[in-house]
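Example record for the data management plan.
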Amino acid sequence: MLLSITTTHQPATDLGFLLHKHPANVRTVSFPFGDGHVLFPEASEERCTATLLVEVDPVRLVRGKSKSNESFVLAGYVNDRPYVVSSFTSVVLAKVFGTAMSGRCDSRPELAASPIPVEVEIPVLPCSGGEEVLRRCFEPLGYEIEAVAIELDDRFPDWGSSRYLQVVLRARVRVADLLSHLYVLLPVLDNDKHYWVGEDEVDKLLAKGEPWLGAHPDRELIVRRYLRHRRPLTATALSRLADEDAAEPEVGEDDQDCEEEAVEERISLNSQRLGAVVAALKAANAHRVVDLGCGEGRLIDVLLKDPSFTEIVGMDVSHRALERAAGRIRLDRMSERQRTRVSLVHSGLTYRDRRLEGYDAAAAVEVIEHLDESRLSAFERTVFAHARPATVIVTTPNREFNVKFESMPAGALRHRDHRFEWTRAEFGEWATAVATRHGYEVRLLPVGDDDPEVGSPTQMVVFTR
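Corresponding structural encoding:
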């Protein structure tokens, strides 16, 4: 069984540092079921490939194992396990790349924190549900996928395809995240595990699946399959994910809104901001709009009052925020006709979600500053490479204006959950680069009183494809 990871990051041999393996050596680790080997078939400055070879020994696999549950006498010896990517692969990944999966790289810490281009080749991947399930699992995480179904027998084409796929995954991602995705999703696709699934599997899933699993649009499918459809364990895992979601401070929750508004109250900035966004949406002739990171639904509430917006989708990673949005717009009391105009979707800003594709416009109002700057590339990919609305509107605080807020200490940010706040030059540089990469035109606009020295309190960009 083979799984290869290739990068063209320069210098490509940095992959050895990230994986904690020297490209000139072969690393072998023994397991009860066989051996795992890590080797580098190519290692140049331009391109580097690390290959994981797992040799499953059928005799070692069944040694000491009870035969009472086998469906037939030779089941332990006659199966596909030595030849396909499966839970065996996940076990080996966790062992031989454990440090890399944790995101630690003492010699290259900045590299470990940075997304790099990677290509993963899997010659034989068992996939229950076929290519559709493969895409449902990996595409929301930002992967481009090539999948070819493997015939049952090329001598008898009428027999059709098997459940095995030949797969290539491509993405720009942190190596630690890549390994985490593979560890969790490979047995999910196989829909099987070679060992008993107990309560400790819930802890392993949540440890390896943070932070991406909670926001994944198919997290219930992933959790259910990972835990081998054991309902009590599945319920526990989903409940803990929901609890963590509720405990995590999210964009748009009441306490955050109040804290930021306390700073900006003097100029009623929130009302001006929403008005500017709605005006930009109407100028773009947008009728079907997605509110990215909708929080408690303030923009949705405004849009619903204008009949020209025929479809409004509010998206947020927080279940609690979506509940508050539903309460604000009185979703349960809406007329049937009004109800058809609006929907609330649980999803993440940094994961591809096909439900967000095909809309006239998307708005991210005071959202990006709540993301780690290292995750902005994933946000960019989700919105501009995959969803690709005709118009994208983004607002964010102008850090230069903070000196005008008398209650703010020097150098402070407007909210404790803000990961950064940009100057006008920094915001303009980011917006221009994004527009250039994805074929959009860009227009930068002030929101609020425009001070001649420090600019406006909020800065807004309108991207037009």
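Summary line stored alongside the record: The longest strand covers residues 161-173.
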